[in-house]
Amino acid sequence: MSLRVTDLKVHYQTLKGEVRALDGVSFEVGDGEILGLAGESGCGKTTLGKSLIRMDGRMRHIGGRVELDGEELPVGDDRRMNPFRFHKVSLVPQYSMSAMNPTRKIGRMVGELLRSRGVPLDAEKLAARLDLVGLSPEVLGRYPIELSGGMKQRMVMVISTLLDPSLLIADEVTSALDVSTQKGVATALAGFRDNGVVNSMIFITHDISLTYQIADKIMIMYAGKVVERAPAKVIVEAPRHPYTKLLIDSLPEVGVRYADRRLSGIPGGPPSLLDPPTGCRFRDRCPLAFDKCAQEPPAAEIEPGHVVACWKA
Amino acid sequence: MMLKLDNVTKVYRTGAFGGGSTTAVGGVSFEVGPGEVVSLIGESGSGKSTLGRMILGLTPVTSGSITWNGTAVRPAKSYYREVQGVFQDPFSTFNPVFKADRVFRMIKEVYFPEVPPAEWAERVRASLADVRLNPAQILGKFPHQLSGGQLQRLLIARALLLDIKLLVADEITSMLDASTRIDVLNLLAELKGRGLGVLYITHDLSLGTYLAERTIVLRRGTVAEMGPTETVFTGPKHPYTRELLAAVPRLREPWQEAEPIESCLYHDKAGTGGLLEVEPGHYVACARLAGCAG
């Protein structure tokens, strides 16, 4: 098992009180596995990604344990996390456009970054990695502004993984890209796993159809909790949680026409996480809700590898 | 009621002293009729938003003409009564220090000063009902208290108050969540049933097909392919359209390698010899179809 997260709770401190962005999240990522993490805005997916590498000033680790390759990851302790960052866990951020130093040529910037971590630059390895994502070594002599969005995103992917981290977190890496570029970048990410550059990956996106293309397993989050986790094919073809079902049904796909098949959204909105309701958090919007939903549904493994938190599943 | 674009071109001056130039849109012609949804699909830099801005009179055209019912489009009150735009980011469209429904009052002040307040309130209520917003949840709120979907629908309601005939919707759902996105699309479909023409500008092919009768695929400022949505999506002729369709991630259908395109000028040339009608209403700008040996 590469990553094991148990009952992780992370809250944001705000003037109005604690926002329970992650409220008891448990999951595992196997060796060589890509876990797709999907959900709508505010469900806690980015918070989860950030919690595993660096919490910002407003985030507080309230409880729960994270284990990476059998070793505890001190997620709540900024200082003790330092040796793990980039060596063990690394992140590809969403805005690669602003991730690189605009005043340095890329090659020089990479050298400086590596030096700051006390690692010598291995030119051969760098060239091999660039080749893996389909960039020419020429880019090292250019400034970030001279690269297109897709190229910048690939370059950041290469930089993030130069220290061969065990776990790579990719947060919405393709959401600012065009469809054809998106395909290239997503395939290159999967290539990192296939070529053993990283051991496992968490691929965060709001786009389930995209996750489906590269992830082995998909985890769906809602209002700070995991509602369903299963192999990608199962999530898409036989989801069991009502939220997953409704979410997938609301996706317009190429070829679906309003005149032929009318899709519908999910009425209502997610609850406030300042003071989340007890019981199932989806119950106000759920067509299947019944009185038992006032109690919190446990995450039950209904089939090997398929976990659902719903009384009706 | 008809919007007509004839050979519209937009050239931007670039460089420190305006010495260079970039052709953002080069010779685009199409029409949008009443009750018709036309989707304009393109990737970044294809000129799709520039087209939208030119139609709304926010940017002048360099050459060619845009006409609304036969008269040239210019930014005038009478034009905006009939044609309105809604844009991508609902959070930046509203002034954050004004209550969101103030946009309604501004419409009244500018366009309908003669309408008595009671009747106006009734009109506002009706247009909010059209976009399925509950007035109690909206009126008197600041933009940050409303969700993106609510704000976007509020903007559509505002446009409806003017009794518009054409809506230019530029990426209006790209900032919305999947569960609310479809509500906005269904709303547009309903309005179309009542005779509203919609130019739906998007980079997302699946959203484009859901509504539109006709699809226009833009590439580098020119039309690569256009025609009835069904035809374009089931039998794309231009290699670019094929490539786009192959790259769209779909559920239950893993990505395939795009079918290889044997010697095609598209890979070497940006411009082509113009549009060729391959079947009724289906136009393709492909040099290969236009008599290339490949």
TrEMBL record, chain A:
InterPro entries (alphabetical): AAA+_ATPase, ABC_transporter-like_ATP-bd, ABC_transporter-like_CS, Oligopep_ABC_C, P-loop_NTPase
Keyword Lyase: no
One Pfam family from the record: oligo_HPY
ABC transporter domain: residues covered: 3-248
Superkingdom of this protein's organism: Bacteria
UniProt entry keywords in alphabetical sequence: ATP-binding, Nucleotide-binding, Transport
Single GO MF descriptor: ATP binding
Name of the molecule in the record: ABC transporter ATP-binding protein
Lineage: Bacteria, Bacillati, Actinomycetota, Actinomycetes, Streptosporangiales
